[in-house]
Specification:
Structural class: alpha+beta
Number of helices: 19
Mean pLDDT: 84
Largest sheet: 5 strands, antiparallel
Number of strands: 16
Radius of gyration: 28 Å
Length: about 525
C-alpha cells in the first residue's frame, strides 16, 4: 500500500498480488479472481463483469458469487477450471486458483485429460480474442474434450431442471430421435468419397417434448423437412440435392386427439412465430445442439473407424489421404496420416485426428469443430527418412518406455501399409472404379442440376450452354480477375474432382492445365 498527498487530499493506493507464496484464506480466491477479471477486461478492451463470467461458465450469477466468496464451496474441480478458462488463465494461474479453493488437486501432465486441458488453457492465454468469442469458450472446450475421447467439464450438478422454467403446461416427456443412415451403409465406399463423411448426410434428427394441460396432451417437435422427395431415391442423389436445397427446420405443435376433438397440427418456419411455446422450443433446440455435438465429435475421430481414405482438391492440388489411429500402441495416443500429392507420399504423426480437418472445407470445419487443435510430432517423406531419423524416446507413463528401434520399425510398417492403401485407390480411380464424385449419378438428375450445384447464375449458365451448342467454350472471368474458357464437359469433369463452384473449377484448370482426373493421376 502506498500513500500520496495531493492538493490537500490523501490518496490511498491499494495493490494486491496473488502468487504461489500467498497464504490460502477465506478471501484469497475472491481477491485472485477479482484481479484476473480486471486483467481480462483490460486485455479485451471491454469491461467484463462477474455476471459475464457466470454466463460464460453456464451457472447463475448468485451461485458464482457464493463460490468465489467461499460462502458455498464447490467440490467440482472442473468448475474452477471452467472459470479459469473463461478468464483466459494459463495452467500456472489455474493451479493457483485450485490451490485457493481448499487446496484442490493441481493440473497434472501425467493425467492425459489434465494434460489436454493444460494445452487448451495455455493456448487460450496466449491467443486473446474478442469479448464475444469468450461466450464460446466452454462449449468449444467441451467439444474438444469429447472429440478426443474425454468427458466434458463437470461444472455443476443440475437438480430439478424443469422446476421454475417458464413452460406453458406441465412437461411429461422429453425424447430425442436420431435416424442414422450414412452413405457408407448402402454401397461401396469408393463410389462417392466426397459424401462418405459429410456430417450433413449422416442423420435425420427429431427432438420433442410433451405437455399435459387444460385437458390436452401436446407434443412440440423440432424436425427437418427436405424440399424434395427422397423416398426410393438413390442415396447419393438425395445427398447431392441437400447441397443445393438443405433440409428446412420446422417447429411443429401437435395436439393429440381426445373423445371430443380430432388431432391438430400447427407448423412454423420460424421460432418467433411459436407464441407461448417459444421458450420450450428454445429448450428443445439446446438438446438438439448437444446431441449434434456428440455425433459430430464421433465422426471427427478416426479412432472410431478402422481406417479412413478420401480424396480432395486442396489449394488447386489433388490430395489422397489415409488416416489410422495407432492401434498397435494405443497408449501413445497418436494418429498416423499419409497424404499423397503430386507423386509424393508424406506420413505424419499427430496427437489428434486430422482427417476431418482435411476432408471438410475449412470454413465448415471451423463452424462445426472450432479452431483446429492438434500438434504434428513426426513427418516423413520416405522410408529412408524414417531410417535416418533420430527418434526421441516417448514416455509411456512414469515407468515404461519403448526403445527407439521398436518405434522406427512401427513407423516403417505403417508407411508401407498406408502407401499400399493409397496406391490401390489411385489404381481404382484411374480405372474408374473409385470416385471422388461419381458422374454416373448425374444421369438420374435434371440436366441443369450441375449448374445449380455449382451455384451458377442464369446469365453465366446461358452463355456456357450457348457456347456448348456452338461447339465452343465460354470465356469466364474468375474471382481474382483472371479469365479461362469452360464448357459443360469441363464442369462435369470438375464435378468428378469434387469441385464445388465455377470459380474453383476455373482456378484448378488454370493451375493444372486439365480437369481430367486420370490425366492428373498419370502425370506422376
Amino acid at each position: 500500500m502506498s500513500t500520496i498527498r495531493k492538493s490537500g487530499r490523501i490518496i490511498i493506493n491499494r495493490e494486491q498480488f496473488i502468487d504461489e507464496d500467498t497464504p490460502v484464506t477465506k478471501n484469497s480466491l475472491s481477491c485472485f479472481f477479482g484481479l484476473k477479471l480486471k486483467e481480462l477486461s483490460k486485455k479485451l478492451g471491454k469491461k467484463i463483469s462477474k455476471k459475464d463470467v457466470a454466463d460464460m461458465v453456464g451457472i447463475s450469477h448468485e451461485l458464482f458469487r457464493k463460490m468465489i466468496n467461499r460462502e458455498k464451496t464447490t467440490k467440482k474441480r472442473d468448475c474452477i477450471i471452467a472459470i479459469c478458462a473463461a478468464l483466459r488463465l494459463d495452467t500456472f494461474d489455474t493451479n493457483l486458483a485450485l490451490k485457493h479453493n481448499d487446496w484442490m488437486e493441481p493440473l497434472d501432465d501425467y493425467n492425459i485429460r489434465d494434460e489436454f486441458i493444460m494445452n487448451i488453457l495455455d493456448n487460450l492465454s496466449d491467443n486473446p480474442k474478442t469479448a464475444d468469442d469468450n461466450m464460446k469458450i466452454i462449449p468449444d472446450i467441451n467439444a474438444a474434450l469429447v472429440a478426443n475421447g474425454f468427458s466434458e467439464l463437470d461444472i455443476i450438478t443440475h437438480r430439478n431442471t424443469d422446476k421454475g422454467r417458464d413452460y406453458p403446461f406441465n412437461p411429461v416427456r422429453k425424447h430425442f430421435q436420431c435416424t442414422i443412415g450414412g452413405v457408407t451403409r448402402y454401397t461401396d465406399p469408393f463410389w462417392f468419397m466426397d459424401l462418405l463423411y459429410d456430417v450433413d448426410n449422416f442423420y435425420t434428427m427429431r427432438t420433442s417434448m410433451e405437455f399435459e394441460g387444460n385437458g390436452k396432451r401436446i407434443e412440440l417437435t423440432v424436425g427437418y423437412k427436405e424440399p424434395h422427395d427422397s423416398f426410393g431415391e438413390n442415396c447419393f442423389v438425395s445427398c447431392l440435392r441437400k447441397k443445393i436445397d438443405p433440409p428446412v427446420k420446422k417447429y411443429t405443435v401437435y395436439t393429440y386427439p381426445d373423445e371430443e376433438h380430432d388431432s391438430e397440427i400447427k407448423e412454423f418456419d420460424d421460432i418467433s412465430e411459436t407464441g407461448i411455446f417459444r421458450k420450450s422450443f428454445l429448450e428443445i433446440e439446446k438438446t438438439e445442439t448437444a446431441e449434434k455435438r456428440k455425433f459430430y465429435s464421433t465422426i471427427n475421430d478416426s479412432r472410431n473407424y478402422e481406417k479412413r481414405i478420401a480424396a480432395k482438391v486442396i489449394g488447386n492440388r489433388l490430395h489422397i489421404f489415409y488416416e489410422e489411429y495407432n492401434y498397435y500402441l494405443p497408449e501413445l495416443g497418436e494418429y498416423c496420416l499419409m497424404d499423397y500429392c503430386d507423386g509424393e507420399f508424406t506420413l505424419s504423426v499427430s496427437d489428434c485426428s486430422r482427417f476431418m480437418y482435411m476432408y471438410l472445407p475449412e470454413e465448415k470445419y471451423r463452424k462445426i469443430y472450432g479452431e483446429p487443435n492438434f500438434t504434428v510430432t513426426e513427418e516423413y517423406s520416405s522410408l529412408s527418412d524414417i531410417e535416418d531419423s533420430a527418434y526421441v524416446v516417448t514416455e509411456i507413463g512414469p515407468y515404461e518406455s519403448y526403445r527407439e528401434t521398436e518405434i522406427l520399425e512401427l513407423r516403417k510398417m505403417t508407411y508401407k501399409k498406408m502407401k499400399a492403401g493409397i496406391t490401390s485407390v489411385i489404381k481404382k480411380m484411374k480405372a474408374g472404379t473409385a470416385h471422388i464424385c461419381n458422374p454416373d449419378v448425374l444421369s438420374e438428375l435434371d440436366e441443369n442440376f450441375i449448374f445449380d450445384y455449382l451455384g451458377m447464375d442464369a446469365s453465366v449458365t446461358a452463355r456456357i450452354c450457348a457456347a456448348e451448342n456452338a461447339g465452343k467454350k465460354a470465356e469466364i472471368k474468375l474471382s481474382n480477375g483472371m479469365k479461362t474458357e469452360l464448357s459443360v464437359s469441363d464442369l462435369l469433369k470438375g464435378f468428378e474432382l469434387g469441385l464445388k463452384s465455377l470459380d474453383e473449377t476455373g482456378h484448378f484448370l488454370l493451375k493444372n492445365g486439365t480437369l481430367d482426373i486420370k490425366e492428373i493421376l498419370e502425370k506422376h
